[in-house]
Amino acid sequence: MHISKCKPNSGLRSLYYSSMRRVVIQLGAVAALFIVIGFVVSPDGFAGNLIAEAVGILVAVAVALTLAEDLARKRRREDWARVRRQTLRSLCGYIEDLSFDFWMSLPDEPIDIRTNAHWVDYPSSEEVDKACAGLRDLEERVVAEIPVLAAQPDLRASSSRLLFEEVKQDLFAIRDVLAPRVMSLDEDPQLSQLLGDLEEATRRWSLVLPAIEEWGVRDEDGWKEAISVFRCARAVYEKAARRLLKIEA
User: Fold this and answer.
1) Looking at residues 224-238, what average pLDDT do you find?
2) Is the pLDDT reported for residue 231 higher than 90?
3) Is the CB of residue 101 less than 8 Å from the CB of residue 86?
4) 4 located within any domain
5) Could you report the per-residue pLDDT of 150-208, keeping only the tens digit for each?
6) Range of the domain at 39
7) What is the pLDDT of residue 214?
8) Residue 3: inside a domain, yes or no?
9) What's the number of domains the chain is made of?
10) Is residue 181, in this structure, part of any structural domain at all?
11) How large a percentage of the chain has pLDDT more than 70?
12) What is the spatial distance between Cα 230 and Cα 144, in angstroms, rounded to a whole number?
């Protein structure tokens, strides 16, 4: 993905704020100059008072411009914070969805992956720790069950292909929508790197599936690539969840 890491229009906003500051400084300098000129031209104070009124208007305009700038900057920070929160929540949600599909692929003994769809609305460090521990447990269980999973007969396709078909929409949504958004927000370089790793693991998984179906490659290889994808997704989840905790704090 070749995505710029700068916020949209950041250069224009910087230029705008610099221009506003220059205007305020210039108005202040002009106001001081007018007061001095007024008392020099009219020692009795009439011209000075008149100019002082004009200066008062200029100062009021300068203060209003400064307040408007601060308010616009604060509102923009709040808007970007909402975008960051929603992006991180969506990342966690998609990974929870694909984790459920991995869990459903297990044979007769289901495991409690200990994820809770509601935690993303009211996160706490305890809930994040439980969710991350559940994902690690699930990964270990799937790794242990690879020989059984690969041997499951199905006339439609290999078992790793069937799992890929279940999770690909979540993976593609992360790759095509959320990963570019994270990079454009410049949210976290490490998170961007983890998303890149997830994209590469997804590509490798998709490439091995035709080899399984057409050239007789073992389905275990497909499951090993699936585990690589899950491991990358779990790393993204842990990073995004803990980043979300900091933003919500």
Assistant:
1) 96
2) yes
3) no
4) no
5) 887 665 678 899 999 999 999 999 999 999 999 888 768 899 999 999 999 999 999 99
6) 10-248
7) 80
8) no
9) 1
10) yes
11) 66
12) 14
**Triad 119, 120, 121: Cα angle to 5°:** 90
C-alpha 232/C-alpha 187 separation (Å) is 18
CA distance 92 to 105: 20
Q: Per the structure block, which two tokens stand in for 166?
A: 């279940």
Instruction: Give the position of tokens 């929409």.
Output: 169
Q: What pLDDT score does 50 carry?
A: 59
Q: Which residue's structure tokens are 């460090």?
A: 125
2 occurs within a structural domain: no
| Distance between CA atoms of residues 99 and 81, nearest Å | 27
**CA separation, residue 146 to residues 100, 104, 105, 149, 212 (Å):** 17, 14, 11, 5, 15
Q: Rounded to whole angstroms, how far apart are CA atoms 233 and 223?
A: 15
pLDDT above 90 for 130? no
Which tokens go with 177? 């929508």
Q: What is the spatial distance between Cα 121 and Cα 127, in angstroms, rounded to a whole number?
A: 11
- Residue 231 CA to residue 205 CA, distance in Å, equals 13
pLDDT value at residue 245? 84
CA distances 48 to 59, 62, 178, Å, are 16, 20, 61
Q: Residue 144, class by beta-carbon neighbours within 10 Å (0-12 exposed, 13-18 middle, 19+ buried)? A: exposed
46-104 vs 159-173: helix crossing angle, rounded to 10: 170
Sign of the CA dihedral with 159 first, then 163, 165, and 166 last: positive
* pTM, to two decimals: 0.71
Phi then psi dihedrals of residue 195, to 5 deg: -65, -35
